[in-house]
Amino acid sequence: MIFVSIASYRDPDLVSTIEDCLRRARHPDQLHLAVLEQNSVPSDIPKALTGRAGRFSYLHLDHRYSRGPCWARSMIGTYLRDEEFFFQIDAHMRFDDGWDDLLVQAHRQVSSHNPRAIISSYPCAFDLQEGVVCKRKMPGMALVLKPRPEASLGETTPVLAYHAVPTPAAAPMPGFHVGAGCLFANASLLQQVPIDPWLYFHGEEQDLAVRAWTHGWDIWHMPDMPIYHLYHSGGGRPVHWDAADDAEREFRWWELDRQAARRLSSLFYEGADLGVYGLGSVRSMDEFAAASGVDYRRRQIRSAAP
Q: Minimal CA–CA distance to 88: which of 108, 98, 101, 103?
């Protein structure tokens, strides 16, 4: 069974995402959709899920009390039961037919190297043109995540900008970064590397990737990922840091962002002990630097080892 985590912040595409996820799954009865909807008024999610196969967990929260994406995803993780797989997505996604089988098959393939395997990327885009879904496919390509050419590690924050590099591939390719909006792994990942609720947004993917890697998890980018993401604003889709939303809260988004940057710096630069949200002991940060080319301890980015 697959635990599907969907954190939604005032997202008008949420219902369509859920419906497409279920409609295009080969085995919808083997899905557990866990949805946290952050909005002033609940949508028709419970009605949309009524009578569908599979398991459903739904929580509504007034968006004025939200503390950001990482906090929301951490909350959703508490609904995990006995599922074999964990699939984290955004609330504005589309799918290919049989996406569940395709991800499971790819995971079985890479698990032959190491059972602690993560399949992730920034997936291809889709657009909505007069209500019609247009998928921007890249056949035969794996989208490999790498630091942007201009990226650098700052003195006070290790947050880096990554991008997806289309790379011809016939099989999943190893990598060192994840896309938080498209991540598939064995469900034990959530128990061994739980999502840190004290992070905000920037640095979320680096935190998860490095912590997972040092805990012994391998990251893979599969070709022809059967998932698509709506990258533009989606017709004015609100985000957590919108000024109007922020004005309704007793705390500011930048306060959460600054707190998260300090926390990430203490972990990557200083090796702070953050308990269950800390680094693993299976692999070291020096090993990560040698393999990935991102050296947090020395604040350098260089070519990865061959």
A: 103
Q: Which residue has the tokens 């799918």?
A: 95
The tokens of 49 are what? 């899920």
**Residue in this structure with the two tokens 């996604």, named with its chain if needed:** 93
295 token code pair: 């050296």
Q: Which residues contact 86 (CB under 8 A, 6 or more apart)?
A: 2, 3, 5, 80, 183, 184, 185, 186, 187, 189, 190
CB-hemisphere CA count at 13 Å for 220? 28
Does the residue 303 lie in any domain? Answer: no
DSSP secondary structure letters along 42-102:
--SHHHHHTT-SSEEEEEEE-GGG---HHHHHHHHHTT--S-SEEEEE-SSEEE-TTHHHH
208: confidence class by pLDDT, cuts 50, 70, 90: very high
Alpha-carbon gap, residue 252 to 259, rounded angstroms: 11
User: Is the whole model's pTM more than 0.85, yes or no?
Assistant: yes
Residue 236's domain comprises 2-147+161-252+280-288
Tokens of 103: 């991800």
Total domains present in the chain = 1
Q: How far apart are the first and last CA of the chain?
A: 37
Mean pLDDT throughout 129-146?
94
| CA distances, 223 to each of 93, 103, 148, 176 (Å) | 18, 11, 21, 16
Q: Are 181 and 90 in contact (CB under 8 A)?
A: yes
**CATH code, domain with 37:** 3.90.550.10
**Structural domain contains residue 301:** no
CA angle 135, 136, 141 (to 5 degrees): 125
* Residue 93: predicted pLDDT: 97
